[in-house]
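User: Quick sanity check before I run a bigger batch. Here is a single chain. Can you write out its predicted 3D structure?
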Amino acid sequence: MTETFSNWTEYDAWLIQHYEEFAMTKVDEIDGKVVVEYMPKAEWEKQERAAGRM
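Assistant: Done. Predicted structure follows.
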């Protein structure tokens, strides 16, 4: 999933609300906007275990 935020403060507020639910897989700043790729934490943990990183 991807979400775009107007600024870092908006992203930080969203992250605080959703930290327990989602794992951030990529964070970029593009043209002054914060673009985040993320997935459910359970899915991320399963993927990391399968890759032998957990």
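The mean pLDDT is 96.

User: Great, the batch can go ahead then.
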